[in-house]
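Data availability (excerpt). The following record was deposited with the supplementary files.
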Amino acid sequence: MQKRQHSSARIRLEISLKSIQQNFLRIQRTVQPAKVMAVLKADAYGLGAVPIAEALADAGASRFGVAGLREAITLKKRFSQPIHVLSGLLEGEVAECVRRKIICPVSDYRIAQWLSREAVRQRTKALVHIKVDTGMGRLGIPHFEARETIQRILKLPSLETEGIFSHFANANNPRHAKTREQIGIFRGLLRELESDGIRFPLAHLANSDGINNFPEARFDMVRTGINLYGVFDLLGFRAYKLSPSLSLNSVLLSRRRLPAGFTIGYGCTHTLFRDTWVGTVPAGYADGVPLAASNSASVLIRGKECPIIGRVSMDYLAVDLTPCAKATVGDEVVLVGKSGKRQLTIEDWARVKQTHPYDIICSLGPRVERVYLPSASTR
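Predicted structure:
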């Protein structure tokens, strides 16, 4: 498409629910017989947890994971699948977690006590997965205390302990020894617990990077988030094909011929060395365009790469239209996605910013219109 179809939004994110469904099914086939938890924390990285969960449920997703209680309640009101809270739990959240049958993380003995007391009070069972710190250094029972602490937790009343899990610190780097160390610690703990007669139905360790780079870490279940959107980390392997599900586009707002010596943008960081057609695009760092893209990245117009010139500002960026002499006001400007035979990806923007793809997706601001392209019947 050359001309941008009419829209009141200056910058638009198109989210292909069909591609997300296809990616989920490919991940599921790759890791079977392990189960797959679709992780939709931070409102599915800002993409919209509810519409994405609806598409994934249609594709057969059997459970969802989120960071906190508020996100869990949003999904629990709409879906029958088990909902996991994966991060820490505050004491004031315990009663609601138990009442709504949300699966709670037990990252220390104190939390287990809170949940047990509340479940007894409500005359029900608290659904829990025990979290072990195998080397992330953030949350969880330290692995060297886990065997004894878990034995104490299992003696508490009214806890239904379905699973045990941990989290990788560096799974995006397949060459780093830390991840295999964590796998060894986790596997060793499971063996110790089994020797004590303790076997959890679900042991899970691998996140998206763990799935891609460490097949031995899949255990009974895996947790995948960013791979659902067809995005890989920059360092890892691409062991299976995923379909990009996100495209980000804006529109060419103006086209002007400016003389040599004219400066572009705040700070005058780019000076035209010849007479140049310069385009203005209404997308800036408030929308998630990295400031690091200033003078160092490109957009696509009519299938041509047009360099960003000058500093990206809050609301605008400027481009050199020399590669696309036929560009006119109203043309579609592709920041992520395809134009002609060329393509820009979330990973490309992550390289520009020297960050992770997660950061790029989560940075897309509220002014960015989210448009959901239809899902497919997959079952």
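Summary of structural features: The chain has a mean pLDDT of 95.
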